Amino acid sequence: MNVGYLIRELYYQKRRTLAAILGLSIGIALLIILNALSMAYRQAAHAPLKEIGADITVQRPGDVPKDLSGAVFPCSAVTISQAEVEKIQGLPGIRGMGKAVLLWVFDPNRAWIVLGIEQNNSVGPAILRSAVTEGRFFQEGTSEALVEAAYARQFGIKVGDLISVADRKFTVVGFVDASRASKIAVANVYMTLADAQNLALSSKQLQSVSPFKPGDVNLLFIKAEQEKITPLAASLKGILGKKATVATPDSFLKLLGSLFALSDKFTLAASLIAIIVAILIAFKTMAGNIAERAREIGVLKAVGWTNRNVVTQLLMESVVQCFLAGILGLLIALVVAFGLSFMKISIPIPWDMAPTPHFLPGGGDQIFKTLRLPIHVPWTLALFSFVLSIVIGGMTGALLGRQIAKIKPSEVLRHE
Amino acid sequence: MSKSTILAGEELSKKYGALEVVKGVSISVDAGEFVCLVGKSGCGKTTLLSLLSGLERPTKGDVVLNGKKINGSSEDELALFRRQNVGFIFQSFNLIPTLSAWENVALPLFPVKMTGEERKRRATELLTQMELGHRMDHLPSALSGGEKQRVAIARALVNRPKIIFADEPTGNLDSATGDAIMDILNRLNTKEGVAILMVTHEVELAKKAERLVRMHDGEVIS
Predict the structure, then answer these.
(1) pTM for this structure?
(2) Closest by alpha carbon to B198, among B159, B221, B220, B169?
């Protein structure tokens, strides 16, 4: 192969070179963008759960007592027994679990949404520790509580105040801005899991519709091995019943309703089409190139170039074109990805995971987790696309070999 | 076939379907000889040249070039044989438009293992001989017809061939430039001792050669 000849051919045949590079680079860019979009939607679907340090949340729907007074469970989250929790803990693929008790407390002059959490567990709502805006996080066994900052402002609650929740007194030790952290498992008052369990145990209304024993909970937050999330979801329904609400990144992905989120098959099919288009462009360009340069190839053969010499020369031209197309395609994809990263997507939070009673003001509104599309081009995808573009260039060799062997110098060099 | 015969075609025939273009032609060229093949258009001159140079395979007959029977060789063997023994000059020059004059001259040497400097040195030497030392880096599009053909002659000589096949080398040139090209070919033949087999339909031009072979309707008539 002669490098000077290769460079001159690419340089002087600008239109042919640019057409080939642009055509192929668009195919490569399309491939990268489609896959980056698909990955971005998948990553976005993790966001609502990731915010509370979990991969899966589990709750079981049930009944609400007719008399809404004192502490009750929301109809979307009733008792999960200690025995069920232990069974779940034994499932393969679970890396960690957080437990919580979510209560609606209807006191004579105020309604509270109460969440009891394991304050030292990194899985689950204790992640709110980072969202404390004033005061401190509560401590075990001290009847301490955190109040949601906006709620505290609305009702004039201050750090150090004593609040009464279902006839029990709690010292407010701090405020938490839950809106900054999560859309799931948000409440007005946060307390230790033990305190919330005690509230549930002593509530007759709650016990009348959903018997609750010491050690029981009504919300589970599970950290799992990524590849086992789907089988785990099925096992959880097996333990808690088919009606159990098991939220996973996949279930949020389905709620997104985007083509990219709906199906892996769509991305795969679109990627395949992009690859096929890129291959066709490369082959068409090369076939055109050979047809256009038949006379030149005839001269090369006449002056002593073997088929292999000619094929190597043209093949390297094709590989260099595809190499440049790979770089350009990657650059186009990076620019498009940068533009798309400003796009905002809203992930709807299912009503049964929203903690506010639907009959209270704002309780029936659809809640969304809105975030910027977390699109980026991973180096593995960039490398794959880049290598693919060069492989496509190399594949044209198969076509080249046959086509070039067919060219007879005596036929193409006959004078006009 | 004498000891000094560089090229011999024996009972050569070429058929394209039912059409027989070359009919049992026998011809030989001695080392250092300048032979002109003349005849009207379509009489089979160019086909005979293609058969003798190994660009085309005969339907019947043998070609012996520089002592080697080339009929049975593969395409790639023929290419290598041409690279080592043969130079070509075409009517329409057939220069590569994207390569400069010296690169066109060095074209047959590109697949040969040698340094770039050596290739350029040989190309420069030949272009200087052709009085084109000042046009070394020009593209073919910047050269006149006569200059293009001189570049093509330099290309035909770069592999130091035993024989040059020239197919109507003056066909695309005016008569003055054509005469100049013929002078160059004559000089190469007499001074360098390169055998030349030239195809032309211009009898006056052919008279400048050492020997004339006339063709008519696929046969050698004299």
Answers:
(1) 0.73
(2) B169
